[in-house]
Amino acid sequence: MFDTLSDRLNGIFTKLRGKGRLTDADIDATAREIRLALLEADVALPVVRAFIARIKERARGSEVSQALNPAQQVIKIVHEELVNVLGGDTRRLQLAKQPPTVIMLAGLQGSGKTTLAGKLARFLAGQGHQPLLVAADLQRPNAVTQLQVLGERAGVEVYAPEPGNGVGDPVDVARASIDHAKRVARDVVIVDTAGRLGIDQEMMAQAANIRDAVDPDEVLFVIDAMVGQDAVNTAEAFRDGVGITGVVLSKLDGDARGGAALSVREVTGQPILFASTGEKLEDFDIFHPDRMASRILGMGDVLTLIEQAEQAFDADQKEKMTAKLMGGEQFTLEDFLDQMVAMRRMGPIANVLAMMPGMGQVKDQLADLDDKHFDRVTAIIRSMTPGERVNPKIINGSRRARIANGSGVTVMDVNQLLNRFSEAQKMMKQMGGMMGLPGSRRKATKSPKNKRKGTKGGSRPRPVGGVPGGGFPGGMPGLPPGFDPSALQGDGAQGLPPGFKLPKIDFNKLRRQEGDNK
Amino acid sequence: MEYVILGIVLAGVLLLAGLGLLVPRIRRRAVPPAPPRPTETTEEAGGVGILAPERPAEADVVEAPPAPTIETPAPTAGRLIRLRGRLSRSQNVFGKSLLAVLGRDRLDEDAWEEIEDSLIGADVGVEATRQIVDRLRERTRVLGTRNPTELRALLAAELVEALDPTLDRSLKVGGKPSVLLVVGVNGSGKTTTCGKIARVLIADGHSVLLGAADTFRAAASEQLATWAGRVGAEVVRGPEGADPASVAFDAVKKGVDTGVDTVLVDTAGRLQNKVGLMDELGKVKRVVEKQGPVDETLLVLDATTGQNGLEQARVFMEVVDVTGVVLTKLDGTAKGGIVIAVQRKLGIPVKLVGLGEGPDDLAPFEPAAFVDALVGTDA
């Protein structure tokens, strides 16, 4: 799972450094790995084949750039191509010149059409439109009720003349809804249809009839991001049966890699308009091709990481932590506990880590990561008194025994934690020192000299003219305003944008020491 | 500001990672024996042993005439066979392409690659596919088979083996009451499956009480109530937004009080990477267990799901100890090959398959019939 494409390719290319040009053999070897990565991300086989063929074409003969190693270069090509395919001619919803605009939703059962109808209605209402939801899913028990509840939440009228549960003709409902919309002056009509299988002739004919009855300006195909190889068949069936003008990817908040997006895009040729990223009505966004490309390739997704972090850490906490780091204050066990709890909120630690570029190098250890261990550490810290948390030095033998008993671990575990913590504390101090904002009082870093840190981190020139505040140790170059995810793609190959260098070194340090401890 | 936050996060992550990597080592040293996996498997093996006598008993029940209810669902025996036509209709593409390959004179690299591709195309997954194909290769070499019929039989045998037909696939029902918990990601078909299972159980002469612990999705409990109304089962519901654990608890309590023999608890769909929701699910199970053990935890898996299905199964397994998989929507073009990977990796057997929207389109899973439909024996 954590075998990211970049790591694999790095493996292949370590021997090939210093070549002036990618040879066919190199390209073939890479193509295999790319194929594997795409298949594991659930991109459909025929699509993978076509895609690889294009990549080979592009990679062949392309100059090896000085700045990037071959692996990075190939990844860059793949990533660009993916973004191209996914994002080529993105567009917005086409609104009819003559209102009402009719939007019809179609898809498999359980792909999230009804929920999406609610979200879309809310989204459009927020843009000043007056949407009308039409309950044309008369198949699934209580789909109509569900839509009514959603409509109420979104503050949008729902047209539901039929009770559903198999009663009524969806085609009639759809047809009547247009007149109704005109009468009550709604400018957008969203028709929610029943989920249907591509091979169900009868249902597909019904969908076509609904389409003919309402003459939609947009037929949105809703597909689950978790769908596997079947995405192609389904998309083809819907393309041929109903005709699709746009695609919506749902359940993107899961951890599926979402190769289906690529499959559907390839097969239907229609753009992906929206991404649905949660269960609440507001969890709805326009589609970001670049993020999706990184996700499919299994590259670290720093943007998502930042987003998740923002959700997990509340503002106060952030401020407090920043102050601590900047001010060079002691990093206490209490802070550590806070951080750990917030991290746990972000999901399984291994997943969070996997999102960081460059973590591929330690993927073996990552696989061993079990969130239970973090809970155990949490328990140890929680068994300490506030005084002990602030000043761990006072923890003597009998306190250790008490803490061990309190948290159900051995004294040795507690010792290990305390040792590790004092290491970590030193590290934090150094980092805090380096992160100092210009103008903020910055205590002289009394950090014990660490050679590697000194050369790689410290001596790096601060990015000039970026954000006031320099950067993360070693320079996270002006992340917020100028941060361009595509800048990551090259570095993503090596796994480490410059800013990540220092953490990586620290990490290695940790690992080595752990080895010593063993 | 954002980069500072990111910096902090990274720092935290690194610290944690350092600890996380260390702690396993400590633990491994401190507590050398008892790796969790084997215990589970032995448990399962034990379960099979204990449960074995239940099977014939159930078969008897199946033969008995369906209990008089509002609607009388057909008995479950042989449903998969009856539905095989539907199954193979959607799946014969796969079977055919395999046959074309296997029917060649010579089996060269391309042919093997095509077999691999067909399996991958059925969502079996790259790793599982490679293992299956490697084993198949070895066996053809050893046996010197070139005959397509034999090859097909070998492949079928290999796939059946991957599904381990010896595992117990019956539902543990008939306690006082036995509790079934239905879990899964959003849109996989949990509520529908609950309704169908209720029908099956009632057809087999059980009395069923449904617990609508999906208090999140709009109108989910109404959907379940509609299903229940059709078969005349009772539903315990809570207000929308109520604590699902309390609804589940009430359902089981009522089940005990009224003396039904099965309580079926439907839960809200949740993506496996939502820690808060998974914790909530853990709580539902813990709370239900206050009244007695949960006999079955069924994970509903959509046949269209790709490689993420494995991750789903793994996480749900960790949180609620899944005892069986229900593979839904197998009537489409999807092949549901992910269950092979799920069973190989996690040892969770598929117990039921959903084959359509009809109320009786739920069948017990039979590995042989599933694989037959997959590779097409009588083509």
UniProtKB/TrEMBL annotation, chain A:
Entry-linked Pfam families: SRP54, SRP54_N, SRP_SPB
SUPFAM superfamilies in the record: P-loop containing nucleoside triphosphate hydrolases, Signal peptide-binding domain
Broadest EC class assigned to this enzyme: hydrolase
Spans annotated as Disordered: 433-518
Keyword Cell cycle among UniProt keywords: no
Subunit relationships: Part of the signal recognition particle protein translocation system, which is composed of SRP and FtsY.
Protein name per UniProt: Signal recognition particle protein
Organism: Asanoa siamensis
Organism phylogeny: Bacteria, Bacillati, Actinomycetota, Actinomycetes, Micromonosporales
Gene field: ffh
TrEMBL record, chain B:
Keyword vocabulary terms for this entry: Cell membrane, Cytoplasm, GTP-binding, Hydrolase, Membrane, Nucleotide-binding, Receptor
This protein's record includes keyword Transit peptide: no
Domain spans labelled SRP54-type proteins GTP-binding: 349-362
Subcellular localization, as worded in the UniProt entry: Cell membrane; Cytoplasm
Catalytic activity: GTP + H2O = GDP + phosphate + H(+)
Coiled coil feature spans: none
Main enzyme class: hydrolase
Enzyme Commission code: 3.6.5.4
InterPro entries named among the record's database cross-references: AAA+_ATPase, P-loop_NTPase, Signal_recog_particl_SRP54_hlx, SR_rcpt_FtsY, SRP/SRP_N, SRP54_GTPase_dom, SRP54_N_sf
Membrane topology: Peripheral membrane protein
Residues annotated for GTP binding in this entry: 184-191, 266-270, 328-331
Listed SUPFAM superfamilies: Domain of the SRP/SRP receptor G-proteins, P-loop containing nucleoside triphosphate hydrolases
Entry annotated with the keyword DNA repair: no
Family statement: Belongs to the GTP-binding SRP family. FtsY subfamily.
HAMAP family tied to this protein: FtsY
Function statement: Involved in targeting and insertion of nascent membrane proteins into the cytoplasmic membrane. Acts as a receptor for the complex formed by the signal recognition particle (SRP) and the ribosome-nascent chain (RNC).
UniProt cross-references to NCBIfam families, sorted A to Z: ftsY
Subunit-structure text: Part of the signal recognition particle protein translocation system, which is composed of SRP and FtsY.
Name used for this protein in its record: Signal recognition particle receptor FtsY
Source species taxonomy: Bacteria, Bacillati, Actinomycetota, Actinomycetes, Micromonosporales
Gene field: ftsY
